[in-house]
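Please produce the structure of this protein holding LLP.
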Amino acid sequence: HGTSKINAQGHLEIGGVDATVLKEQFGTPLYVVDEQLVRERCREYMDAFRASGLGFQVAYASKAFCVMAMCALAAEEGLSLDVVSDGELFTALQAGFPAERIHFHGNNKTLEEIEMALDAEIGCFVVDNFNELHLLQAVAADKNRKVNILLRVTPGVEAHTHEYISTGQTDSKFGFDIGNGTAFEAIELASKQSNLVLLGVHSHIGSQIFEVEGFQMAVQRVAEFAAAVYERLNVAFKVVNLGGGFGIRYINGDTPLEVSQYVKAITDAVKNHFAQIGYAVPEIWVEPGRSIVGEAGTTLYTVGTSKDIPGVRKYVAVDGGMTDNPRPALYESKYEAVLANRANEAAQETVSVAGKCCESGDMLIWDLDLPKVQSGDLLAVACTGAYNYSMASNYNRIRRPAVVFVKDGQGDVVVRRETYQDIIQNDLVPERIAKQPV
Ligand code: LLP
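Below is the modeled complex.
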C-alpha cells in the first residue's frame, strides 16, 4: 500500500523510513501512518467530487482516527469533519479545524455537547431524534442563534458488508425511519422551528462496503423521499449526506473499488434520480473514515515468546494485542502481516499471532505464513489506520502506543507513548483506605 516497500536491506520501509529504524527511534508497539497515502486518499475524494460538477463536502469521519495532527491534515486538504462527541469536537477545535466545516453526529448528544458545539459555531448538526430536535431548538433560541441541521433518516437499506437488507430498517437506534412515516413527521416539525435551518437529510448504510449497489439504492430511496416531502410539505433539500462506509483492502481477496469509482457511482445516481423527478440536484456530502486512513496505518510489534503445540499450532506473541487493535477480538477482523526486518525472506512456517493480554481471545492473526519467526523479530501488521488507535484501551493497564506520521524519510510523533504516570493519573485512593508506604 502507498509508499510501503522493501528496501535494499530487505526491510519494510514506509514513507521512506526503515521500519527497524522506527523501532529504534520510537519503540514498539508503534502505530505508523503513511502521511502521503492519507493525503492521496483525501485528494482522490476531493478530485472525484470536483469532476462530478456537483456541490459537495467530504467530511472525514474522525471516529476512525481522531488526533490533532489528523484533524489538522484533513483541514489542510480541504475536508470537512464529522465528530460524534465532545471529545472529538474538542480535539478538532484544539487542532484549529474550521468550525464551520464541522458536522456533529450522535444519537444521544448531551446538553453540554450541544452548548459546546453551538458556542464553537460549528457548521451543522445531524439531528438524530425528536428529543434532540426539541433540545437543539430550545438551546439555539436561548442563545438567539440560527443553526443548520440535517435530519438523519434510515432509508431502509442496510449493508452487511456484502449483502443489503432492503426491507425496513426500523429496528435501528439511529435516525428517523422513512418507511413508517416518522421521517416525514420530523421534517415537518424541523421545518417549523424558528431557530433551526433544515438543510436536508443524512443517511448512512453501513461500513466496509465493497459494492456500489447499496449506495445507489439509498440515493434512490432518499430521492423518492425528497420528492414526497416536496410534494406534501413544500420543503426542498439543499443537502443530501450519504454517510461513509467505503471499503478497503485488509487482506488479499478483499475487493474494494477505487475511491473515484464509489464517488462516480454515487454522483451519477444522484444526478439520475433527482433529475428524473425534476428536483434541483442537492449538494452531496459524504463521510469516509476507514477509506481515508485505514490502509495508511501499519502497526509494528516486537515478537517475544512463542509456543509450539506439535501437530496443532504455533503461537507467536507480540508486545501489543487487543489493547491497540481490538478489531479481531470484536469483529473477527482479518489482517495480514510481514516480518519487517526480513521482508524479503520466503515464508517457512504458519503461525498464529497472539497479543499479551490476559485472555485467550486476544489474538491478532490466525494462521499467518511467515519466515521462521524468532524472538526479537519485528512484525508489521498492515491496514491498522482506522478504528485501531481510536478504539484502543488500557486493558491490563497496558500503555497505549505512540503514533508516528512518516513522510519523505522523516518520522514525527503525533501521539506520544503513554507513560506509567499516564496510567495512574486519574487514580485516587480515599483517606479511609490506608495508603501503603511506597
Ligand atoms: N458516518 C456515520 C454516520 C457513521 O456511523 C460512520 C461509521 C461513518 C460515517 C464512517 O464510516 P467508514 O467510512 O469509516 O466506514 N468500529 C467499526 C466501524 C464502525 C463504524 C461506525 N460508523 C470497525 O472497526 O470496523
